[in-house]
Sequence to fold (496 residues):
Amino acid sequence: MDSTSEERRLGDYALKEKLSEGMLITTWLAEQVSVKRMVLVDELDPERTSRSAAFLADIRAKASVDHTLIGTVYEAVIERNLCFYAHELLPGATLEDFRKNGETLMPVRLAHLLRRIAEANLHHEAHRHASSLLTLDAIHLDERVMRLKNLVIAGPRTPDQSVRDIARLGETLPALVAPDEAGTTRVLTLLAWMRGEGIAEPLGWQDIHTFCEQIEHQLSEPLSTLSPGNAAAEMVRKKPVTLIAILTGLALVGMVLLAMKLKPPAPEEPPPAVLPPPVLVPAGTHLTPDGLEAVIPAFRISAHEVTIGEYAEFLKSLDVLAPSGREKTFDDPGQPADKSGHTPDAWAELFAAAKTNGTWEGRPVSLDSPVINVDWWDAAAYAEWKQARLPTQEEWFAAVSPGTEKVPVISPGNWQPVTADTPDRTASGLIGMAGSVSEWTRLPAANPNNPLGEMFFVIIGGSYLKPANGVLTREWAPNRSLRRPDLGFRIVSTPN
Fold:
């Protein structure tokens, strides 16, 4: 890397150091003078200005990306023979720096990083972003905060891009896995699957996200209760039989055996329940809670209310973002300025009881129990973190009674863990719609008993404390900061 012999200026940017130079583009470390911040500037070779249209197309594609894990484009300038753009200087070292220095990462940390990489790439898939090859030098790590270089380029996304990037990480990440640690063999096995070893069907980013969630959960305290995780096992059952054979072989020994295949000893207690997947509600005419009919686009809705374990992962993510001042990334724009976080009331006691399958307020609780004591702002932030949203009351009701069918009679259930035996469920597999906990919805609405009155946010469904009319129960909350021990939420997303 060469310092500039005489400091140049490109608009508002003082060029400090030449970081790289290619046939078309030179990358500079620069200071944005007006705001006194360091940035990166990519400058198109003045002799190649015929390429400015393609250069600008790529910049526009990058600038369209809005994701907390992906680098930001600040400004693009094209003037006469001058063509450049400024973008975020990502903090920390790259994983390529780690590899060159012979450094390794603990398996649980690498699983967390890989899960966040999967989240960013699921965003690319959802928005059809084309991108250049994902390599280790595009992955930045600062303490525990991971950011990705913006690799988006102009043009359509091709089906093989995810497969390409997954395989590349499967090839390059093994060198970064700390040896002989809890979870080492599980991470190495996942990376082998990412390379395509032992499987006939390639893994997708959602598969990787789910596996990494399970590994993180398994490696969280206490380590003595490590288990392979039922959700991962359920996914594997959907893959070829080869995977099942691999997992079966993992349980035989306590060391690496046959291409890094290891399974820890069986836990003394049963592993967490496999949570049911979201339910697709097709587009069409559906009944509304007010007895009308409305045309509603297709959507997917959580089969169950967000659980304590799921919400704990959200809070952990916010803790990771806090050192860089980005813990408000997922907050709703209208959130009150004095709201300092998203920790539910009595969270420490509730979470401690849930982790040990104990009791809280005299009731049995586990990590698979619906989270409670959350307000609307908490629910909205969690949904944004999951790249989803809260359901409208019309969507929620359409999920209970698809089309114009008669509303089913469902007996309200207690607040209890989500399991295959949870009785409060619809024919399509939705759990807890009549009881368990009441749920926040997305938008305010007028109370039909006072149609000219003020619109408030709707809380829908009965609860274990207020079963009322089951699925027909509604309340109108004048204050979105309301928290109750029988109030939770579920989320919806748009089908791909």
